[in-house]
Amino acid sequence: MSHTQLRCIECGAPHQADVHTLFCRQCGSPLAVEYLGVNLLPRVGLGGLWGLGAPSPVHHPNSVVSLGEGATPVAPLATLGKRLGLDALFGKLEYQSPTGSFKDRGSTVLMSVLREMGVAEIAEDSSGNAGASIAAYATRAGIPAHVFAPASAPLAKLQQIHLYGAHVHLIEGPREVATQAAVDYVAQRGLVYASHNLSPYFLEGTKTFAYEVAGQCRPLPQHIVIPVGNGSLLIGVWRGFLELRAQGRIGEVPRLHAIQAEAVRPIASAYEGKAWRPQPGARTVAGGISVAQPPRLRQALHAIRETGGTSVAVPDEAIVRWQMALAREEGIYAEPTSAAAFAGVEMLVQQGVIAVDEPVLAPITGMGLKDSPPP
């Protein structure tokens, strides 16, 4: 008997633990993992995020598909902190993950569950980092993978997906067209849709970011500023901190702030109570957060509001400027999506949301070598 079930995040309806079920059968909303009993995998031989003592949906350590992910360092960013007038600014270097982005946290858990449940073949849609991560962990698990990506995705990311051995399907048009192509392919072939946007198991991996921060940062940062597209890191971090608080391991949960690009800002607009629709041809240099219709938008808003956070949208000019500043002043080559978080920190300081004496942490979610505008 499984120690988990799935529960609708809106109506609360329970569902049996299943990798095929991505939406509530009663109201159509996304699902979350609920633990009926705690299964902490034995720490012996399992390092990185698997040794953190977090509740896991995986039943046996032999099922774990790992590349040594997790345990990314937290680096003080004194030069940029001084520029912003902050006493304490930190970056968590998620780009040091095996495939170069934080998505490996979600992929290791999702792929472990898929292997444990005997899944034979999967499909996923991604603009880059998630596709590369899923492709790598699928290869590690011995599960053939199909990755649907916009034809406009960065070439370096597409090459990475291809080199891991996944079947790459390039789709013309905006990001949402690639998603629909993947959904149609899954229905036609009877495959499992291993969606990092929808799978509740992916969030059980990204929540380990919170567990690591709780062990690395004393005291905890008062603000965590996150670049957000679909919200898998934001929601996962929120779930992780809620678990830690319930366990009595932390007190207050840090304020979580969601940063989006001005051109694609569904969450920031919803936070402000404003209607937003994508403009034809609208694009941003921060491709990793260019998501016009995040399926977990309401859950992301709940995470922001419950922690006392905010959501703002930043211009591409600021994103490019902060990517350059990270490289030239701190020696960190981040992708534009990651730099958006620091443009967000700047805006929140200017707005008085972040006080100069409050510690701030931002995840540097991806490596710049995979996605950078021309100099």
Question: Key features?
Answer:
Rossmann fold, single chain, 12 helices, about 375 residues, globular, 4-stranded parallel sheet, about 35% helix, alpha/beta
Overall description:
This protein is an alpha/beta fold. It has a domain at 74-99 and 202-370: Rossmann fold. It is built from 12 helices and 13 strands. It has helices at residues 78-84, 103-116, 129-141, 155-163, 175-189, 200-206, 208-216, 232-246, 266-271, 297-306, 316-330, 336-350, and strands at residues 4-8, 14-16, 31-35, 74-76, 89-92, 122-125, 145-150, 167-171, 192-193, 223-227, 255-261, 311-314, 360-363. The strands form 3 sheets. A 6-stranded mixed sheet has the order 4-5-13-10-11-12, sandwiched between helices. A 4-stranded parallel sheet has the order 8-7-6-9, with helices on both faces. Strand 10 (223-227), helix 8 and strand 11 form a beta-alpha-beta unit. It is globular, with a radius of gyration of 19 Å. The N and C termini lie far apart (56 Å).
